[in-house]
Write a structure and sequence with these properties.
This protein has 416 residues and is an alpha+beta fold. Helix content is 28%, strand content 28%. It contains 11 helices and 21 strands. It has helices at residues 13-23, 39-50, 62-71, 77-90, 131-134, 144-160, 199-210, 227-237, 253-262, 292-296, 311-322; strands at residues 5-7, 28-32, 54-60, 95-99, 106-109, 120-124, 138-141, 164-168, 171-174, 190-193, 214-218, 241-246, 265-268, 275-279, 282-286, 300-305, 325-326, 338-340, 352-361, 384-397, 400-410. It has a 9-stranded mixed β-sheet with strand order 1-7-6-5-2-3-4-8-9, sandwiched between helices. It has an 8-stranded mixed β-sheet with strand order 10-16-15-14-11-12-13-17, with helices on both faces. A 4-stranded mixed β-sheet has the order 18-19-20-21, with no helix packed on it. The chain starts with a strand and ends in a 6-residue tail after the last strand.
């Protein structure tokens, strides 16, 4: 998109940029991803290792990855299997370490201190798997100084926070105490969450709290009790124009309700996974969700965007206008005509269609007596409707209740 900002998509241009960078590596490749399951990327890593490049990787622990399908419907078991299969192919050829809290996604090639080749670095909101082409994600290309800071974050996590190391196929060993703690270069534009730092959390909160005119937040995970989400609510309550972009799923329903009540606009896309904040034109793209596991105790990274760049703001503006779903808190029926995604349903549940008005002629219902009318079976509908129906009322004849039609309206409540 220009100015170092990338959008993922079916053409795979961002993935191609990552692969090209690894193919051009001369000495060092650093790869971090919660899940690592892109065959093209893995092939580039293996070829780099074959030509003598030192390839290092950080991923989530096997226990955390195994729990992903149970904790979140987005992570299919197939993704986990592909991740494990790819790690087997990397065993013995790259040096891979893992930890339960590793969640950052980025690639750094030939960081400045190796003094060889062209330094390249990319932060990705997408896991390095099919999300690179299938999900709504962002990527940021860093300059060489930022790349040094990002590589430094990798080095610190590798030496002082990793828990296990892949020593051979399907065998991991515990990581011992490092011989020394690395000296890590820093950069004001590269923020991290680690076991000893919450600068990314502080940076996100500073942006939200400092917003005075317009605040746009894109995030897959929203915890209604987290200080960052509460800060967004407060921004909306004090009159800031707030838009939150997310993925419609039960896990974000409480936060969507909270924010909508405060006056925020909440829009959604079933493929959204990008995490970014723009407050009065100042932007930040990151790997962390607005949850404790991300901002408080994960290994996460974020990159500040040059305020002079309008590209990120333009992308989020397009998403604001183009996302198909908008959260409605207790909508009136005219607001819910058409397709509706119930807030307590996930992407695997069927959506419903609301029609404006439909008249349905129902068959007669015969009950033993007038007192048992309420026990008669009601019609079942797969679609929620404002229903004008022919229903029975009548008299008793020969011991049976003979029913004649009358009109009644039936309604229902709707949400995201």
């Amino acid at each position: 998109m220009g100015s170092g900002v990338w959008r993922t998509g079916a053409k795979g241009e961002f993935r191609r940029a990552l692969v090209d960078a690894i193919n051009g590596a001369q000495q060092v490749v650093l790869v971090a991803s919660f899940l690592l399951a892109d065959a093209t990327l893995a092939d580039a890593m293996l070829k780099a290792a074959e030509r003598g490049v030192r390839v290092y990787a950080l991923t989530a622990s096997e226990q955390r990855v195994a729990k992903a399908p149970d904790d979140d419907e987005v992570f299919e078991k197939r993704m986990v299997d592909e991740h494990k299969q790819l790690l087997r192919s990397l065993a013995g050829k790259t040096l891979l370490r893992s930890a339960e809290h590793f969640h950052a996604k980025f690639v750094v090639v030939d960081p400045p201190w190796v003094g060889a080749g062209r330094t390249r670095a990319f932060l990705s909101t997408a896991n390095l798997n099919k999300a690179l082409t299938d999900s709504v994600e962002l990527g940021i290309e860093l300059d060489s100084v930022q790349a040094g800071a990002l590589a430094g974050a990798f080095v610190r996590a590798f030496w002082s926070e990793a828990e296990r190391e892949l020593v051979e196929t399907d065998r991991l060993a515990s990581v011992g105490k490092p011989p020394a703690l690395p000296v890590v270069p820093s950069h004001a534009g590269v923020l991290t969450t680690t076991k000893t730092s919450t600068e990314l959390r502080e940076g996100v909160l500073a942006l939200i709290v400092g917003a005075r005119r317009k605040l746009v937040v894109s995030c897959y995970g929203l915890d209604a009790a987290h200080p960052s989400v509460l800060a967004i609510k407060d921004a909306a309550a004090r009159g800031v124009q707030v838009t939150v972009l997310t993925r419609p799923r039960p896990a974000v329903l409480a936060a969507a309700r909270l924010l909508a009540k405060a006056g925020a606009v909440v829009r959604a896309h079933e493929k959204l996974h990008a995490k970014a904040v723009i407050a009065d034109g100042v932007g930040l793209v990151m790997t962390a969700n607005l949850e404790a596991h991300g901002l408080d105790r994960g290994f996460e990274v974020g990159v500040r965007i040059d305020p002079s760049s309008k590209v990120l703001a333009g992308v989020l503006s397009e998403w604001e206008e183009g996302f198909p779903w908008e959260f409605r808190l207790g909508p009136q029926r005219p607001e819910a005509i058409g397709d509706v995604w119930m807030g307590d349903k996930g992407s695997r549940d069927p959506k419903v269609e609301v029609v404006d008005l439909e008249t349905v002629a129902l068959p007669a219902v015969i009950a033993a007596n007038a007192l048992s009318l309420d026990a008669a079976p009601a019609p079942g509908y797969r679609r929620h409707r404002r229903l004008r129906s022919a229903w029975p009322v009548g008299c008793v004849l020969n011991g049976r209740c003979v029913l004649q039609p009358f009109r009644r309206k039936r309604g229902s409540a709707f949400g995201l």
